[in-house]
Amino acid sequence: MMIYQDNLVSITEDKIIFAHYYYPSGKSKAVKLADIELIEVKKSTIGNGKWRIHGTGNFKTWSPKDNARPKRDKIFFAKLRSQWINIGFTVENAALVEKLFKEKKLIRNE
Hints:
There is one protein chain. The protein has about 110 residues and is mostly beta strands. It has a domain of about 70 residues. About 10% of the residues lie in helices and about 35% in strands. It contains 1 helix and 8 strands. It has a 4-stranded antiparallel β-sheet, with no helix packed on it. A 4-stranded mixed β-sheet has the order 5-7-8-6, with helices on one face. The longest helix has 10 residues.
């Protein structure tokens, strides 16, 4: 069952699907919520990827494509259990998604 969906992500009870994840194909990537150790929510700044439209700047965090990322106020960082690279993603309704992840006990704020 879908609990949240926008042009960037789809969230069900047990997974997140990141749209436009892979470069250059633009294919999506699905990640089970059980594979996520934690999600941090950070204010969108130059230092943490505000201008990172797609890809990586540090080889540790991969960002799915979001042409509007510089306009977003928050960036979510998912630390995965099964791989060393993290996912830095944005959503269209950050307040609602943050609430959903808190309910699922995935959020740890700085």
